[in-house]
């Protein structure tokens, strides 16, 4: 890859997408210009890969140089060549154990197939999650069906019971350190992925895979699950509409928010060869 090739890692919600879950015209134009110059665009999301791909296709990010990182770094997909280029799961035995422990505590937990969210019952937590994604869901009869393969991710959703999620994290997930780890991507979502998985490790892996110097990398984000990505990239660009406290992990804060071409500002400042 040429030494002048740059790579942008961008979060979706609150970053590339506006509050209506759409891409602004200014962001779209800037992305088109970056790709035309041979730079790379990587959509990075905690969403399942199917949701990230759906959005990437809607935004036209299926051209050469476009990629999607799903499950907060656990799966990476080349949208031009239509293939997974990286994936890391944890064992279904651990997945089933964690799933059952959540159920025993009365917590909502869900897994994923290639196309759907899998849960044991339809409840307000599941519907809350679905309302913010583009994936469908399926109600399955038991834990074995919910976790029928080594999972990329499990997700607990809590709407009014953060303390219960904290307790579950400490008592159920932390004892499995070295095999899985967990983090809150938002106040409501406790994510469980394989040890070593984060958007930050995905940034480093992609740069090595594409032979792009890390100093040519730029990350754009706004949320707690973007912190590792913002720290890993050479330029960590934090949206001015970011969650409180996120700005300290970047080295640039946008002047424009996600509703007013904030990502275009980042691309113009750090990616395009003017």
From TrEMBL:
InterPro entries: Cof, HAD-like_sf, HAD-SF_hydro_IIB, HAD_sf. PANTHER family: HAD SUPERFAMILY HYDROLASE-LIKE, TYPE 3, PHOSPHOSERINE PHOSPHATASE. It comes from Blautia glucerasea. Keywords: Hydrolase. It holds the Pfam family Hydrolase_3. This is Phosphatase. GO terms for molecular function: magnesium ion binding; phosphatase activity. Its EC number is 3.1.3.-. It comes from the Bacteria. SUPFAM superfamilies: HAD-like. One of its GO terms (cellular component) is cytosol. NCBIfam families: Cof-subfamily, HAD-SF-IIB. It is an enzyme of class 3 (hydrolase). CDD domains: HAD_Pase.
């Amino acid at each position: 890859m040429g030494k002048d090739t740059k790579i942008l890692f961008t979060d979706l919600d609150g970053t590339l997408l506006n509050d209506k879950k759409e891409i602004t015209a200014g962001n779209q134009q800037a992305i088109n210009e970056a790709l035309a110059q041979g730079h790379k665009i990587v959509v990075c999301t905690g969403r399942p890969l199917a949701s990230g791909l759906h959005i990437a296709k809607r935004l036209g990010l299926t051209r050469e140089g476009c990629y999607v990182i799903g499950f907060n770094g656990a799966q990476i997909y080349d949208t031009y060549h239509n293939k997974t280029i990286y994936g890391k799961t944890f064992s279904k035995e651990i997945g089933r154990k964690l799933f059952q422990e959540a159920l025993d505590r009365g917590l909502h937990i869900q897994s994923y197939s290639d196309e759907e969210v899998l849960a044991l019952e339809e409840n307000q937590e599941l519907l809350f999650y679905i309302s913010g994604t583009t994936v469908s869901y399926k109600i399955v009869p038991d834990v074995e069906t919910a976790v029928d393969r080594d999972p990329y991710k499990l997700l607990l959703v809590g709407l009014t019971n953060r303390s219960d999620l904290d307790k579950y994290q400490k008592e159920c997930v932390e004892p499995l350190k070295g095999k899985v780890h967990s983090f809150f991507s938002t106040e409501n979502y406790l994510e469980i992925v394989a040890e070593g998985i984060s958007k930050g490790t995905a940034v480093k892996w992609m740069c090595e895979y594409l032979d792009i110097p890390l100093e040519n990398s730029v990350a754009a984000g706004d949320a707690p699950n973007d912190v590792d990505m913002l720290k890993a990239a050479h330029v960590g660009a934090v949206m001015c509409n970011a969650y409180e406290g996120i700005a300290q992990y970047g080295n640039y804060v946008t002047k424009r928010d996600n509703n007013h071409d904030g990502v275009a500002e980042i691309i113009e400042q750090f990616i395009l060869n003017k």
